[in-house]
Design goal:
Layout (H helix, E strand, L loop, with lengths): L1 H13 L3 E2 H6 L1 H5 L3 H7 L7 E2 L1 H12 L6
Antiparallel strand pairs: 1-2
Length: 69
Amino acid sequence: MKQHKKKNAATAERAVLYDTADLTKHAKELFGVKPEILQGALFGVKQKQMTKAQAQTYIQAFLTKEVMQ
């Protein structure tokens, strides 16, 4: 029963929406990247709010993207 409560608490914590401006402001502390990296990752994204997990997904996709010449 305790594991179920911990799992629900973790899921609820991940579901919290944050303003992208706040995530960018604290990018170094939250994701270990400069704010410019998060800005680049979110370029063209219309969402004004997202979870930390969503932002992390955008960052990983951005950092692993192949550079075009």
